[in-house]
Specification:
The protein is of the alpha/beta class and 398 residues long. The chain has 3 domains: 163 residues, FAD/NAD(P)-binding domain (3-Layer(bba) Sandwich), CATH 3.50.50.60; 99 residues, Alpha-Beta Plaits (2-Layer Sandwich), CATH 3.30.70; 74 residues, no CATH class. It is built from 11 helices and 17 strands. Strands 1, 2, 8, 9, 10, 11 and 17 form a 7-stranded mixed sheet that branches. A 7-stranded mixed sheet has the order 6-5-13-14-15-12-16. Helix 8 crosses helix 10. The termini are far apart. The protein binds flavin-adenine dinucleotide. The site of flavin-adenine dinucleotide has 33 residues, from helix 1, strand 2, strand 3, strand 12 and strand 16.
């Protein structure tokens, strides 16, 4: 028995950044929107970052907490990427996307289909369209993004990352991992709130890398730069799948439209989805308003081809050694800005993406490493790898 029934043009299930932006823009477009999340008021957990040019023009710049004009990549040598990058303000993003004209319901969806949603309290929602923005499941043995981030006071972090600077990928040999251990890199940016995050990150391993291992590596890197922690710093953890595919073209009958990270917008090689999802919100809404199907509008063949090629990229990344990863990233970050963008950001620039993938493989040396990259050899190199037990080195603890 339904407790009550709510009707709308659009029902959005899940108020992460994707569902939030979709709800806001759909209301702005004149739609009656009902959005549901178990805890709509709960602040988002992770730190969200992106390239500034990925954000749509309609999003106020107050959504940005920290801008980094030219972040750094350390591979074999230092690369300065002349492309502004930013950390989003979670509070600023919500302020920029008010939901007051939507019907927001605190509840958990227990059944979701193309036109109806049932909540755990018996409420029944019906809508002309239902978007499933419930995010991703736990990764299990899938290709995974794993990270352990430590928030360090900016003045303590300054010897390594000064204000306005950022280390996008730091592959320097400072994390204490040996050549026969799965690779990881450091990501470190100021957050605009007086702290800097130091986040050891692994991308593409099946099942990911344990938090204890990532923490050990982060602490080793900090120690290499003479940075001592107080011991009470806040941390964040990431562990989510990178290989969530785009939805099939219609024919999926009663299924809702999956959107955001749940709908294929998680970038398989970077682990980012937020900017792309926000940027595509209007494409979805335009399709709905003109009576079309959002799935082909969001996923033309060019975008599907891009997704397919990126998946080859994450397969490759997940089987490389540290030395091979460094060589591969060194080749990639000498590519043209358009080629770099085709891999890192653009939703459908398949020609530039194909050329940069080809170029990256072609520049990989020694020659036989290319076989690992494309999967002829060492296809399952790190599958079943046993990590060391948790011990925090004495010199790093308080
Ligand atoms: C530590 C960390 C760092 C990250 N850094 C970045 C980054 O720099 N840039 C980037 O782009 N991405 C980053 N990510 C990934 C990012 O968090 C995801 O890409 C993003 O949150 C996906 O947004 P989403 O709205 O699609 O899904 P989610 O953020 O997962 O939101 C899903 C929502 O659905 C709700 N929900 C779940 N089940 C139900 C249900 N049954 N009924 C109703 N609601 C439900 C949840 O409560 C949640 O609010 C990071 C992730 C982590 C963990």
């Amino acid at each position: 028995m339904s407790a009550h029934r709510v009707e709308a043009d659009l029902c959005v299930v899940g108020l992460g950044p994707t569902g939030w932006a979709l709800t806001h823009r759909a209301v702005r477009a004149g739609m009656r929107v009902v959005a549901v999340d178990p805890r709509p008021e709960r602040p988002w957990g992770p730190t969200f970052s992106c390239w500034v040019d990925e954000l749509p023009g309609w999003l106020p710049r107050s959504a940005i907490a920290q801008r980094i004009e030219a972040p750094t990549v350390w591979a074999k040598s230092e690369h300065r990427i002349e492309r502004p990058y930013c950390v989003l303000s979670k509070h600023g993003l919500r302020e920029a996307l008010p939901l007051e004209d939507a019907t927001v319901i605190a509840g958990r969806a227990t059944a979701v289909d193309a036109h109806a949603v049932e909540l755990n309290d018996g409420t029944s929602l019906t809508a002309a369209a239902v978007f499933d923005t419930r995010g991703l499941p736990a990764p299990g043995a899938r290709r995974t993004a794993s990270a352990h981030g430590i928030f360090v006071d900016a003045e303590i972090a300054a010897p390594m990352v000064a204000d306005g600077e950022g280390l996008l990928l730091d592959w320097r040999d400072e994390n204490g991992a040996g050549p026969d251990e799965p690779p990881s890199f450091l990501y470190s940016v100021p957050l605009g709130d007086g702290t800097v995050i130091f986040e050891e990150t692994s991308l593409g391993l099946r099942g990911g890398m344990p938090q204890r291992e990532l923490r050990r590596r982060t602490l080793n890197r900090l120690a290499a730069h003479g940075i001592r922690l107080r011991g009470d710093e806040h941390t964040e953890a990431a562990h989510y799948p990178l290989d969530q595919p785009p939805p099939h073209l219609r024919g999926h009958g009663d299924a809702p439209t999956p959107f955001g990270s749940r709908g294929g917008m998680m970038h398989p090689c970077t682990g980012y989805s937020v900017a792309d999802s926000i940027a595509l919100v209007d494409t979805a809404i335009d399709a709905l308003r003109t009576g079309g199907d959002p799935v082909p509008a969001l996923w033309p063949w060019q975008a599907r081809l891009v997704y397919w090629m990126r998946m080859r990229g994450v397969y490759g990344m997940g089987r490389l050694t540290t030395e091979q990863s460094i060589s591969m990233f060194d080749a990639f970050f000498t590519a043209s800005p358009r080629q770099q963008r085709a891999l890192l950001s653009a939703h459908d620039d398949f020609a530039a993406l194909a050329s940069v993938l080809f170029m990256t493989v072609a520049r990989t040396w020694p020659f036989h490493w290319r076989f690992d990259l494309v999967g002829f050899t060492n296809r399952n190199r790190w599958v079943g790898y046993e990590y060391r037990p948790a011990t925090e080195p004495d010199h790093l603890s308080r």
